[in-house]
Amino acid sequence: QDALPMLSCKSAELLASYEPQRLNDLYAACLKAYPELSTMAKEGWFFSGSGSSFFRIKAH
Predict the structure, then answer these.
(1) Keywords in UniProt for this one (predicted)?
(2) Which of 17, 21, 27, 32 has the most CB atoms around its CB within 10 Å?
(3) Which residues, 6 or more positions from 21, have their beta carbon under 8 angstroms from its beta carbon?
């Protein structure tokens, strides 16, 4: 039920509105296993849903 409002949002909107842990259930476990990755998060990088890659929102 909490996910319903997310369905109409664009990716950039979701990433700006929600904490990474809320959008990706692997996020906390990944940072626990690899704490150095928290630096990437502070630089505006996000994990993909599978956690296999990173991405940033393209500036317009």
Answers:
(1) Kinase, Transferase
(2) 27
(3) 27, 28
Q: What is the pLDDT of residues 33-53, one digit of tens each?
A: 989 988 988 888 888 877 678
Q: Give the residue ranges of DSSP H helices in the chain.
A: 11-17, 20-23, 27-33, 38-42
d(CA 36, CA 38): 5
Tokens of 57: 């929102």
Q: Which residue has the tokens 């990755």?
A: 37
Name the pTM for this structure.
Answer: 0.68
